[in-house]
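Morning run. Coffee first, then this:
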Amino acid sequence: MAGTVSSLGIGSSVLTADVIDKLKANDTANMITPIDNKITSQAQKKSALDLLSSLLSSFKANASTLSDDTLYQKRSVSGNTDAVSVTALSGSDIQSFSISNTVLAKKSILESGSFLSETATVSSGSGTMSVSVDGSSYDINYTSTTSLLDLKESINTVAGTKVTASILQTGANEYHLVLTSKETGASQNISISDSVGGTLNNELKTYDVSTNPTGTQSIQTASDASFKYNGITITRASNSVDDLIVGVTINLLQDGGSTNIGIAQNTTAISDEIKNLATSYNTLIKQLDDMTLTDLANGKVGIFNGDNTIKAIKREVTKMMTSVDSNGQSLAQYGIGLTEAGVMTFTQSEFDAKMSADPTGLEAFFSGSTNASGEYTEGVFGNLDALLNSYTDSTGLMSTLIDASKKETKSLNTERERSTALLTARYDTMTARFAMYDSIISKLNNQFSSLQQQISAMINADG
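And here it is:
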């Protein structure tokens, strides 16, 4: 066909490939270009719907958090110092108390005297060494070839759940075996002994700088923690006390600590979530305004200009944010309002005043409440969450619109393929016919030229 197209017009000088190209370009503009424009428009709508769906999901996440009563159970702690640190779980009682006279719980630490190296043997014979801690005893066998390193590893293998053995090099040719209890508390004191007749007693018995330089001495005695809670003396084996007050952990960090602790509702967590909500709302509304814009005077229209379904999203969300409940309450009373331009604002001072005056009422309005009869009333953010869920759910509005856009794009692509095939077939046929007509015209031109030559010859002969 390429050869045919390139030779068109030789006979007629009229039925040329250029004529076919122009005709095909005109048909393409009428049949294919409108479909391409629709495909491009659908791609833009699909992209806009994806963005809108994402923004609605973010806004819903903020509303869901504010509707969850666990947010209002969060606690903040004041009074923490370098010596005392307190944490409080959600739902723990709001309260205050004093902590003073802190004494830290300690671990038991034993240190042997000095050995020349890690590989130095610890005994001249065989036996069994016992390590006792927290009511349990652990036996470690040794021989005359057992080195300091071997002994350390054996202790960690046998008694590692209660004791940590390590080797400390304090100077040149000075290596010490150090035993440290895993836990603090008076019950964690470590003691070592040897089997009857065992030779290790001679090397690791009570340290004496003159008579037994390799002997063992206590560096630190295990002891309980103690402190005063509201003036009452409390003792515990650990420096982390989580069984004195339900939901509260007191961490002792230094000796001699003293502080006053306050546990209160974490209002900062709530106000931070409201700020996040305002940011999500304003971003969503700005996009909705741009997508549904109609500004014919300046030639600006949004991708969903005239689409009442998309416009309804803004209308319903804004209505929810400005609604008044049966008790006459609205978000504006809590410092959450809309400007004339539709921008959501948050006034911290108004929120703080409401929170301070009636925290229970604020939680009920935001998150919902159950009355004495067991009847539950949904909060404003629970209602907002439900509305947004109708948009973002897998069977919700956005999913429906996105699926419809995908189907329309698929249909347009099918239509384009069909129209392209039809156009190709039409011009393949036209090209073949042009070639045939051009051949006929060429033959006629040749015949006419031959006849003209004969006539000219006859005229010249008669002259």
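The first helix runs from residue 2 to 7. Good start to the day.
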